[in-house]
Specification:
- This protein has one domain.
- The protein is elongated and about 55 Å long.
- About 55% of the residues lie in helices and about 0% in strands.
- With about 180 residues, the protein is an all-alpha fold.
- The longest helix is centred in the middle third of the chain and has 35 residues.
- The chain starts with about 25 loop residues before the first helix and ends in a 5-residue tail after the last helix.
- The C terminus is likely disordered.
């Protein structure tokens, strides 16, 4: 490896690290939640999650996992809404096809930097046992941040740290979670 380069290994298929969930309703709600977009969580999934969380199940591990995922989904939905509005603002500033690209006002640039800091801080808050959750957040929020990055020139190199799962490692991916029932 050339000097000055660091070697990072990203584990893509870590969904097997999900905690063991015994209660079938909690497992179904968790799989449905992991298999959907968190930018706008469907009402039926919200209802299933809330129902599973309010059940009298003795599966505390499952309830704790579902609670953590649900809180993250709500945070992503709220933060993603803000980022989507920011993205639409960039589209308005640059025109539909980018014909009016100009230097961003400092206030807008500072807002983008603040959003990036918040994203990085949130990702850093996940523990080693929450790799599956961190990757889901990276996928959901990272996609919007990359779209913002594409519309803003002169961003700090730290923006290159934004990653996405993309289509690599589909075995054990969130796409498969949608169909898992048991």
């Amino acid at each position: 490896m050339p000097p000055g380069f660091t070697h990072q290994v990203r584990c893509v298929s870590e969904l097997s690290a999900l905690p063991e969930i015994k209660d079938i309703n909690i497992r179904k709600a968790l799989n449905a939640l992991l298999g959907t977009s968190w930018l706008k969580v469907e009402p039926t999934i919200k209802s299933a999650v809330e129902s599973a969380l309010s059940s009298n199940s003795d599966d505390t591990v499952g309830k704790d996992a579902l609670t953590d995922v649900w809180r993250s989904a709500q945070a992503v939905e709220q933060f993603g809404g803000i980022l989507t509005e920011m993205l639409m603002e960039f589209n308005d500033l640059s025109g539909g096809s980018g014909e009016t690209v100009d230097k961003l006002p400092d206030s807008v640039y500072n807002a983008v930097e603040a959003a990036h800091r918040k994203y990085c801080t949130y990702l850093d808050s996940f523990g080693q046992d929450e790799v599956y959750l961190k990757k889901k957040v990276e996928n959901e929020i990272g996609s919007i941040l990359l779209q913002i990055k594409q519309r803003v020139s002169g961003m700090d190199p730290k923006w290159s740290q934004i990653t996405l799962l993309g289509t690599s490692g589909l075995s054990g991916s969130y796409i498969e979670r949608r169909g898992i029932v048991t």
